[in-house]
From TrEMBL:
Function, as annotated: Functions in the early steps of protein synthesis of a small number of specific mRNAs. Acts by directing the binding of methionyl-tRNAi to 40S ribosomal subunits. In contrast to the eIF-2 complex, it binds methionyl-tRNAi to 40S subunits in a codon-dependent manner, whereas the eIF-2 complex binds methionyl-tRNAi to 40S subunits in a GTP-dependent manner.
Matching SUPFAM superfamilies: DPP6 N-terminal domain-like
Lineage start: Eukaryota, Metazoa, Placozoa, Uniplacotomia, Trichoplacea
Domain (Translation initiation factor beta propellor-like): residue spans on this chain: 181-377
Protein name (database record): Eukaryotic translation initiation factor 2A
Entries under Pfam families matching the protein: eIF2A (PF08662)
Organism: Trichoplax adhaerens
GO molecular function: mRNA binding; ribosome binding; translation initiation factor activity; tRNA binding
Repeat recorded as keyword: yes
């Protein structure tokens, strides 16, 4: 038990066997379920954490600072080796938006966005650079979950009248992208790969809508794949794109979009609509880990209605409400889920609930102080 009054950040390793958090003075890593402290590092000004995929490393980041003793600044991005407990490497990285190093799933390489491109580091020796993708002005970068080959995706925003563009590369062949797409009306993007790492969805948006028709700015959705296909995904209703999610099977994706009540559509890899879920007050999509159930939910400024759809026959299983929810997490077995009401989004009514997808409320906890409920990513059997 940590009695420190502050927890700046908390994260699980990908397999759920390690838990790390930042308190006022240090960073602790414990082994689960025993709760044994296996590592303890100085926190400094750190406020962000990330495990590597095989939890061989822990990356920490804090705001960049200068001082009289260090006018050039000190390393604010540090990578710790969790086998030895020693510092593997340190870097100066000023932006929080892209601070997180990205590892390939096998940890053979580690990547960092730098001013003039993407630096590729040796996975077993983070201090050693082995390659570089040279490209100025990269705003967003993403690494595929595939390892044979590993794919890179980069995004450069609209600049001085020139269009924005996204490029996909097969590592280590950086001379020629396998797919690219240029377009206007893109200040920001979010990128998501399918399970195989062959296909990429790019949700592009502008800071404002010059037509004045939308508070959210203008938004578009693009599809790219390793065969060179690039498609502007056609949506059946104008308005914001609230949520875009791949199915765990990697062969289809779902989009919630359009002015309220929003539409929801399931697409295949050709970007053809498979199924229309109709219109309702929803803004989020949650596939269960097996991809057999799709939850369409309306959280945030909506009333918390949730629809659960059977993917096999595409029929509605259940529909019920979890008011004031700020978080939703499926259990690993895909039968249960948690909803939570957390600060700072909501300061009152904090707590969490455990549900079955049929609508049965199984457990409820109300808390006095703001907390988050997190699922440990291991097999869980509930009866």
């Amino acid at each position: 038990r940590d009695e420190s009054p502050k927890c700046k950040c908390l994260t699980f390793s990908h397999d759920g066997n390690l838990l790390a958090w930042i308190s006022d003075s240090d960073i602790k890593v414990i082994k689960l379920p025993e709760g044994e402290i296996v590592h303890q590092f100085p926190a400094g000004y750190s406020n962000s954490l990330a495990f590597s995929p095989k939890h061989s490393f822990l990356a920490t980041w804090g705001p960049y600072r200068i001082s009289d003793k260090a006018p050039q600044g000190t390393h604010n991005l540090v990578i710790w080796n969790l086998a030895s407990g020693e510092k593997s490497a340190g870097f100066i990285h000023k932006r929080h938006t892209d601070w997180k190093p990205l590892w390939s799933t096998d940890e053979e390489i580690c990547t960092r966005v730098v001013v003039d491109g993407v630096l590729v580091l040796k996975g077993s020796d983070i201090g050693t650079s082995i390659a570089k993708l040279s490209q100025d002005g990269i705003q967003e970068f993403s690494l595929s979950p595939s390892t044979n080959p590993i794919r890179f995706a980069t995004f450069n925003p609209t600049k001085k009248g020139a269009p924005a563009y996204v490029k996909m590369y097969n590592f280590p062949n950086f001379d020629r992208p396998v797919c690219q797409k240029s377009f206007y009306k893109a200040d920001n993007v979010s990128m998501s790969w399918n399970k195989t790492g062959k296909s990429l969805l790019l949700h592009a948006s502008t800071e404002s809508d010059k037509t004045g028709s939308s508070y959210y700015g203008e938004q578009s959705l693009y599809f790219l794949d390793d065969e060179g296909n690039s498609i502007h995904v056609s949506l059946a209703k104008t308005g914001p794109i609230y949520s875009v999610e791949w199915s765990p099977n990697g062969r289809e994706f779902c989009v919630v979009y359009g002015s309220m009540p929003a539409k929801a559509t399931l697409y295949n890899l050709k970007c053809d609509p498979i199924h229309e879920f109709g219109s309702s007050y929803r803004n989020l999509i949650y596939f269960n880990p097996q991809g057999t159930i799709i939850c369409l939910a309306g959280f945030g400024n909506l009333k918390g209605e949730m629809e659960f759809w059977n993917r096999q026959d595409l029929k509605l299983i259940s529909k019920f409400q979890a008011s004031d929810s700020t978080q939703f997490e499926w259990s690993p077995d895909g039968q249960y889920f948690a909803t939570a009401t957390t600060a700072p989004r909501l300061r009152q009514g904090n707590g969490y609930k455990i549900w079955h997808y049929s609508g049965s409320l199984l457990h409820e906890v109300q808390v006095i102080k703001p907390k988050e409920e997190l699922w440990e990513v291991t097999t869980v059997i509930l009866s």
